[in-house]
């Protein structure tokens, strides 16, 4: 089945775009993720990545054309796939989609929301599978260099070499310009805004997202110096909170109401946002939030920040969970892969210095918690060794507290099913109250 | 042991002469192998040297002839039976498949059939559908038979002597296009082990398994590829049954790519067996690309020379297939 | 009979036109094979070839009474049978040259030459391969109520194949309209019939299958014609098969790679002196069927037809290599 190429919506209030340039000629091969064409909206110019690997055919738009959002402008055919007459578009997207329902859109900086897997089977050679099995690396995390994107043994070897190579440590890093990275996933209903914890990134929500299923839209914000966000100098928690409020405002402009979820440091930030954006929030959910007491396992945080290879990262990551088995070598390698950039680690180290100086949480959100009007729930793993669960006791009478069995500091990773259930009930309950 | 250059057919003849000299139980049987010297002049003058008692022309009676050889082998003689063309073994399937292959087993190991069948095979001579087949896989399917396929004069001699020393029926597929090929052959008696493949060219990028004439085409293709930096390992299969698992699997583990080149019809053939063998083994885990089979067309061998050429793998086709395999195009 | 006629059987039996046509075809066979030999030497023909030069009377006299509905099965030495049965030499050459216009579209070559439309079910690369097939054709005629007969050609070497014995037995028990014609040219490749066959005459094998067996001079057109005529009459009358042995000789080697080590020059020359075509031509002249000039004209016409046939074959297109698997199965 050929894959459609559509003119995507890349801006919230965009109904049309102008195709400014094709990067691939008709009949040419393009790899998934490679630049396919540029579009211009009245606000910005944007490069659009290819949704699949294949040969481009049945191109209907030429450079300079103004095209409705969702219109099919070409088809990608797999190697050897017969190119017949142009297929009918699977679901012709209406040109005037209400801005409140973003499909898989791109937010600044350009980042296509997690693509829906095309097939659940991964194309890989037997040698690649063996190497991945033995090296403890997930094939899904690799891009194949073989025909039709097949993962070759050499691709795995290369990835393993990267993981094993010790990352150089630099204390020097330079800040980067630009807004915080926001990625979205489409859906129906009131969106859920998610803020991850210190040293994590938006990818870390994956298990929870899976457990929650595809229902409501998601808006994920990457902290500065984390994930795809630019590195920033953070003088204080207040500084950081300001950045997050700004990003929150930008990301939720199209919505009247959103739910807000934060984990750990993200929880403290969510609380800070709730403090000043109460009217926008239908609910607030905090997983092991920071800022509710002075104690923190700073040793683990430093260990994670300092680690330059999977082997030295793994023991610290194991502190995060109730059961050390949850953190496989494979997971550690994947985690290390996201932290390979020494400047990122240096930026995080500086951030830790301002937020957790002298092994102490230097910010206190208990007053904000006390002022909270939004329906709130706190979830805390029974075996959290990073932040003490007793900090939750600061909550007032209206706030629910859930102790997640069998979980440490990251229950959303360790026990995504119960966490998803708690959240679903909490969000639904809040929506019912609000409605 | 000194070595000199002689042809494939001379090497076979030399092996037969050594056998006739050293073992009075050895006899040669076949159509026109006496005065005529054999359709491909392989027995040539053996009739003059050993006489009609040891070099026996048979009537044109393949079923009977093969069966008589089987019966004689069962009871003390060691016949080397020449089929004029291996295609005619179709007329003798009964005696080869139902009798020779099974007698030892059916008789609970009490009997032995040390017969050797010589099978001139292959296309490229313009002899069309009934004189050009490569039927070795048929016999490879039958437990109780051994099937070999020499690709060099040295092995032609060594495998024939090994076949004679073997207590079980052995079919030797000799490629007609190789009869005139010259190569170094040691003097005197020696055997080439049945069931042992040979690495004819070491390489690291792709394993090409081939036998008989295809070995030479594969080697030629490998040389051309070497100029482009593609380093093919070429394995001379030599023995179809028993097959040398270890040499092939070890090579595939090294190169991660496998191509089997053979002249018999592509489907249900030697290529299928070797591919399956790799797929079933741990060597599977070393594959970096699908396994390729290059075999004969799904058709009888045609008469027209151009059709005949395209009906079986040729050097350029092997070269192109190996290249695309190594370049990751398949 | 009131007027005892001691002219040869053929002269008595067949109309002058028929006899002239028979002579023409015998010359056509001879010139065709010479032309094929020349073309082979020029590299126009691939593979090998088995020439029947010297055996033309056997082929022609066996086929003289046959219609296109009657069938023949032929052998690797089958050019003569094919022409005697009425094939066009142009299409035969085209086949030898591997052309698409050939009788087998270039797939078969000399060894598989056939003309299914004139009832020639084909030459055969397998010695004895055609014998059971001929019996099958006769079975069809009988079961389907057709009057056709089948003539099954084979060599002296073939009579030692199991297929020969099995087929003759079946033809006999079912009384099938088939005539087995053994062209005994003294050798199966290099092996003398006298060495390879237990009985002195191959016709003696008939006794084992309870059918008439006769041995005739295969270079005597009339003798062959008479024996075949009687066998056909018996077959059409539903009385079953017959075995006829035509004693003849091939002048050329077994195939293109024969070193003639198994026979002498003298023997070959003796037989060349017994040229069946000259013998038949002389007979026709003696009995006033034609004169020297007419005979010369027939011979020249045959040569001319062969020239044209070669030209046609040369000009013909070759099959496309992409069609290598065409004709393996019925086309959808
Ligand atoms: C089954 C089989 N065995 C052997 C051969 C090889 N071969 C081809 S022709 C021939 C001799 C046949 O002798 P004969 O039947 O007397 O026919 P002739 O060639 O004399 O016309 C032989 C041995 C064959 N083609 N098929
Ligand atoms: Mg003969």
UniProtKB/TrEMBL annotation, chain A:
Enzyme Commission number(s): 2.3.1.12
CDD domains recorded: lipoyl_domain
Cofactor annotation: (R)-lipoate
Pfam family, any one: Abhydrolase_6
Gene Ontology biological process: pyruvate decarboxylation to acetyl-CoA
Lipoyl-binding domain segment(s): 2-80
One Gene Ontology MF term: dihydrolipoyllysine-residue acetyltransferase activity
Keyword Transferase: yes
Domain called Peripheral subunit-binding (PSBD): residue spans: 123-160
Keywords, ordered alphabetically: Acyltransferase, Lipoyl, Transferase
One term under GO cellular component: pyruvate dehydrogenase complex
Similarity remark: Belongs to the 2-oxoacid dehydrogenase family.
Identification of the protein by name: Dihydrolipoyllysine-residue acetyltransferase component of acetoin cleaving system
Gene: acoC
From TrEMBL, chain B:
Transketolase-like pyrimidine-binding domain residues: 6-181
A GO MF term: branched-chain 2-oxo acid dehydrogenase activity
EC number(s) reported in the record: 1.2.4.4
Keywords carried by this UniProt record: Oxidoreductase, Thiamine pyrophosphate
Source superkingdom: Bacteria
InterPro entries assigned: THDP-binding (IPR029061), Transketo_C/PFOR_II (IPR009014), Transketolase-like_Pyr-bd (IPR005475), Transketolase_C (IPR033248)
Cofactor(s) essential for the protein: thiamine diphosphate
A Pfam family assignment: Transket_pyr
Entries under NCBIfam families matching the protein: PRK09212.1
Protein name: 2-oxoisovalerate dehydrogenase subunit beta
Gene label: bfmBAB_2
Automatic annotation (TrEMBL), chain C:
Gene3D superfamilies membership: 3.40.50.970
Alphabetized UniProt keyword annotations: Oxidoreductase, Thiamine pyrophosphate
SUPFAM superfamilies: Thiamin diphosphate-binding fold (THDP-binding)
Entry-linked Pfam families: E1_dh
Residues spanning the signal sequence: none
Keyword Cell division carried by entry: no
Gene Ontology BP annotations: pyruvate decarboxylation to acetyl-CoA
Record's catalysed reaction(s): N(6)-[(R)-lipoyl]-L-lysyl-[protein] + pyruvate + H(+) = N(6)-[(R)-S(8)-acetyldihydrolipoyl]-L-lysyl-[protein] + CO2
UniProt GO MF annotations: pyruvate dehydrogenase (acetyl-transferring) activity
Residues that span the membrane, as ranges: none
InterPro entries: DH_E1, PDH_E1_Alpha_Subunit, THDP-binding
Domain Dehydrogenase E1 component stretches: 24-320
Domain of life: Bacteria
Cofactor: thiamine diphosphate
EC number: 1.1.1.-
Function per UniProt: The pyruvate dehydrogenase complex catalyzes the overall conversion of pyruvate to acetyl-CoA and CO(2). It contains multiple copies of three enzymatic components: pyruvate dehydrogenase (E1), dihydrolipoamide acetyltransferase (E2) and lipoamide dehydrogenase (E3).
Name of the protein: Acetoin:2,6-dichlorophenolindophenol oxidoreductase subunit alpha
Source organism per UniProt: Pseudogemmobacter humi
